Amino acid sequence: MAEKLTLRNPELAKNIAEKIKEIAPKKETTKICHVCGTHEWTITHFGLRSLLPSNVEVIAGPGCPVCITPASEVDEAIQLAQKGIVVTCFGDVIRVLGSEMSLLDAKARGADVRIVYSVSDAVKMAKKETAKEFVFFAVGFETTAPSTAVEILKKPPENLSFLVSHRVIPPAMKLLVEMKDLSLDGFIAPGHVSTIIGLRAYEEFPKVYGMPVVVAGFEPLDVLFGVYMILKQLKEGKPKLENEYVRAVQWEGNVKAQEIMQKVFDVADGGWRGIGTIPSSKLVVRNEYAVCDAHVKHGVKVERGVDIHHGCRCHLVIIGKIKPTECPLFMKACTPQKPIGACMVSIEGTCRIWQNNKYTSMHYGIFSDAHV
Amino acid sequence: MCLAIPAKVISIEEDKARVDFGEDVLREVDVTLVSAKVGDYVLVHAGYAIQVLDEKEALETLQLWNEILKAEASPINTS
User: Fold this and answer.
1) Is the pLDDT of residue B70 over 80?
2) With b meaning 16 or more CB within 10 Å and e meaning fewer, what string describes A57-82?
């Protein structure tokens, strides 16, 4: 579909970059925030920032679920693994540090920790190895949470429970808007989270906060048009909610997925690494499915953990207050091979993306490697 | 982690579908969350189809982009 639709047309990109320059506000800085690791990847990988005027900044907010999972919840998963339970998780999650170690460290010390592509793989493993107890460490935003909910609803095998650490995005965006010193001028809302929650989830941002919001897709042109649409709203002085990603996102979102999530999860206040507690931002398993809740089944609860290790600036990178290169540990003590901060762990973490795409974003123009 | 890849639905059996990610990469995905039919393009995230893609809307996006670039004062309203 992508080739046929030529969503990476370089001529279009050049032209839209010109339009952006034409309509960009003349003030010192216009700050647009996205909250999705995949958007950061597109922006950095294709060097999109180099196409923007110097007074238009696109910053990365808390859009990486692995980065914002608090150490206390990683510690819970490690405790379960150390008790002899098989802990299954997505690939990125295994390397993120808890208070003292990561799940990968626990695995190196003999714990049975397994990477899965999908929660359904955890279900298959539990069905096959009935003598063992399994836990799926469920990390992710609204894009991922419905799949966990589906498996809980389908009555998983008795030897599988879920350590649910899912978070929802709009409350975090609200927090960013309310941080006056961040001085945001608009949001590029996350495309795939929005396939689930729909445009309507962002209604209050233009209405209550006068904040432009554009839901954008993940091709470079999607992001450039997202920036253009926000700048156009700012120029006209009419903040509103717009959809650039019409091929995948609808006003009401995926209602079926929302209903399944509501059946399985309640919403509670939740901790975000480096940020603190955000009201109504965490999904917890409802009482009627307590048998599937690893907290209840295995009595695990860690109240506090060490989120930010000495010298690490993840708490500032996560909210877009500083760039990864402004952290004193970036590519010195903290590297993709031996990450200290959560933002260097995940392929959706801002520090990891900046490091992995350093050369493409610095030295190549947009689309020079569009086939990657 | 919110990465989702488009794929074409080849066949459906109950809550599972066989999908084609292109270049003969076939995989079974769960379609509980969507109402997809054979021939549809779906967005797949971690083994689950999370949305059916609208090819007509995608083509209109391209048209819209071109229109914006052609007309100096073209209004944008895609909401």
Assistant:
1) no
2) bbbbbbbbbbbbbbbbbbbbbbbbbe
- pLDDT, tens digit (0-9, with 9 covering 90-100), for B57-68: 777 777 777 777
A206 with A288, same domain: the answer is no
Q: Which token pair is A179?
A: 């941080």
**pLDDT band at A1, cuts 50/70/90?**
very low
- Digit-coded pLDDT (tens) for A112-130: 999 999 999 999 999 999 9
Cα A259 from chain centroid (whole Å)? 22
- Could A246 and B54 be called an inter-chain contact, meaning their C-beta atoms sit closer than 8 Å? yes
The pLDDT of residue B1 is: 64
The predicted-structure confidence for A134-169, as pLDDT tens digits, reads as follows 999 999 999 999 999 999 999 999 999 999 999 999
d(CA A322, CA A303): 28
Q: What is the DSSP string of A321-372?
A: SS-GGGSTTBTTTB-SSS-SSGGGTSTTSHHHHHHHTHHHHHHS-TTTTTT-
Give the pLDDT of residue B54.
85
Q: Does A307 touch chain B (CB under 8 A)?
A: no
Q: Is the Cβ of A65 closer than 8 Å to some Cβ of chain B?
A: yes
**First CA to last CA distance, chain A:** 16
- Between vectors from CA A270 to CA A264 and to CA A339, what angle results, nearest 5°? 110
Task: List the CATH number of the domain containing A8.
Answer: 3.40.50.11750
- B12 interfacial to chain A (CB closer than 8 Å): no
B55/A195 Cβ within 8 A: no
Domain count, chain A: 3
- Taking CA–CA distances from B16, the nearest residue in chain A reads A120
- Quick check: is A22 in a domain? no
pLDDT for the residue A362: 47
Residues 198-237 of chain A whose Cβ lies under 8 A from any Cβ of chain B: 199, 221, 225, 228-229, 232
Taking Cα atoms as reference points, which of A47, A1, A131, A92 lies closest to residue B5? Answer: A1
DSSP-derived 3-state class of residue B18: strand
What average pLDDT is seen over chain A?
A: 92
Which residues of chain B make contact with A216, given a CB cutoff of 8 A? none
- Tell me what percent of chain B is helix, strand and coil, each rounded to the nearest 5: 20, 35, 45
| Nearest CA among A125, A117, A338 for reference residue B1 | A117
| A218 and A324 in a common domain | no
**Domains and their CATH numbers in chain B:** 5-70 (2.30.30.140)
CB contact under 8 A, A144 and B45: yes
A218-248 per-position pLDDT tens digit: 999 999 999 999 999 999 999 999 999 999 9
